[in-house]
Design a protein that fits this description.
The protein is 28% helix and 32% strand. It contains 5 helices and 9 strands; from the N terminus they run H-E-E-E-H-E-H-E-H-E-E-E-E-H. The chain has helices at 9-25, 73-85, 101-106, 121-132, 205-216, and strands at 30-39, 46-55, 58-65, 90-95, 114-118, 157-167, 170-179, 185-189, 194-197. A 5-stranded mixed sheet has the order 1-2-3-4-5, with helices on both faces. A hairpin with a 5-residue loop joins strand 7 and strand 8 (185-189). Helix 1 crosses helix 4 (121-132). The model has no long low-confidence stretch (mean pLDDT 90). Bound molecules: zinc ion (ZN) (2 copies). One zinc ion (ZN) binds next to helix 5.
């Protein structure tokens, strides 16, 4: 039975792509952000970016297109325009149905700075299923019961690892996973070995202290 407020497929496709790039790139010095905004250098207005990879001052802009037809030159031109406006160093244009020939030719001007990736829905979904099932922590507790397996994308967590808290000279480590679907956060507390939803009762007072610090820095 389909749920009442089903998320559009293109949005779910964006989550899958974000999860793939997040897991392949993110670290303490590299941030992978889903659905974010950057002020255009020339337009001076806010531009919406599907996925942004930030490393020091280097920005990689990722745009996802989930169309039934190959992405054409016109769509590429609008990608290029935004790419220039937000001053990204690299750009990755992702399509679930490939690109027309002229798109491949057109990007030659940007020699190595722009790449095209054809990742179809099934391929993207399979990559997450392979990794995630059995590893329950990649799925948001709030959302995981509300999806049809194989057809819908559940709430996927993007983890930030290696966050430390020092109390009385003792360092304890934490991880925070943010759900792409509901934005709810899940915390892994290393001292307890517990995984808790941020709204749930805390596993220990250290977790509370850590979260306080996390939100103020
Ligand atoms: Zn969720
Ligand atoms: Zn704890």
């Amino acid at each position: 039975m389909p749920s009442i407020k089903e998320t559009p497929q293109w949005k779910q496709y964006e989550w899958l792509i974000t999860k793939i790039f997040h897991d392949n790139n993110s670290s303490l010095s590299v941030k992978v952000l889903h659905d974010t905004n950057l002020i255009g250098e020339y337009s001076e207005i806010s531009r919406q970016i599907d996925v942004l990879i930030e490393e020091n001052n280097t920005k990689t802009m990722i745009e996802c297109k989930h169309y039934s037809k190959p992405v054409n030159i016109k769509e590429l031109e609008s990608f290029l325009s935004m790419f220039t406006d937000v001053q990204a160093k690299f750009g990755i244009f992702i399509s679930s149905s490939g690109f027309t020939k002229s798109v491949y030719k057109r990007i030659r001007e940007f020699d190595g700075r722009i790449t095209l990736e054809h990742i179809n829905w099934e391929k993207a979904y399979a990559s997450f299923e392979k990794k995630s099932y059995g590893r329950i922590t990649d799925l948001c507790d709030e959302c995981k019961d509300k999806h049809i397996r194989g057809k819908e994308v559940p709430g996927l967590l993007c983890w930030e690892h290696g966050l430390g808290l020092e109390i009385d000279g003792i360092i304890s480590m934490y991880s925070i996973g943010e759900c792409l679907k509901c934005a709810n956060k899940t915390v892994y507390c290393d001292p307890c070995g517990w995984i808790t939803n941020i709204n749930e009762e805390s596993c220990c007072t250290f977790r509370d202290a850590f979260l306080k610090l996390y939100y103020t820095t």
